[in-house]
Write a structure and sequence with these properties.
Helix 1 (4-20) packs parallel to helix 6. The chain has helices at 4-20, 44-47, 53-64, 82-91, 108-116, 132-146, and strands spanning 27-31, 37-41, 73-78, 95-100, 126-128. The protein starts with a helix and ends with a helix. It is of the alpha/beta class and 148 residues long.
């Protein structure tokens, strides 16, 4: 079984693929109980606004696997946005691990506030900041090239 750090490194390789495709470099994978996983990256430029890494992984999982998602853990290099949080909650995942925080568009605060208010009854553990510096660095590099 791979360690959480090794799994996040796979997500970072997916983020690098996105970078090479001129996409915002975010990678994700969904780890199943048996140790297998599905991985992908952002594809918004090619497939539309909804093709965030998290959506892509969840969609692939729903088509390829019939596992109980409550036993799967989603890894992603960047804090999911509100749109992705909705998909994550609907998928009923068992846990979320992410790297870099997203201060502008991140949805974790929204989710935690909803939980406090009694909304979104499906709750799961969230681990924040795994390899956060590596996850943030690829984003900084990407946006530096865009701002020149």
């Amino acid at each position: 079984m791979l360690s959480p750090e090794e799994l996040m490194m796979i997500c970072l390789k997916e983020a690098e693929k996105a970078f090479e495709e001129d996409e915002v470099p975010v990678g994700a994978l969904l780890l199943f109980k048996d140790g297998t996983f599905i991985k992908d990256h952002n594809r918004k430029q090619k497939k539309g606004f909804y093709s965030h890494a998290e959506f892509n992984v969840l969609k692939k999982a729903s088509l390829k696997r019939k596992d109980d998602m409550r036993k799967a853990v989603l890894y992603v290099t960047l804090e999911p946005c509100i749109m992705c949080i909705g998909a994550i909650v609907e998928a009923r995942i068992g846990g979320l691990v992410y790297g870099a925080q997203e201060p502008k568009f991140g949805g974790i605060k929204f989710l935690k506030d909803a939980w406090k208010e009694g909304r979104y009854p499906h709750k799961f553990p969230i681990y924040e900041g795994l390899l956060k510096d590596d996850c943030a660095e690829i984003l900084k590099k990407f946006f530096a090239t865009k701002r020149k």
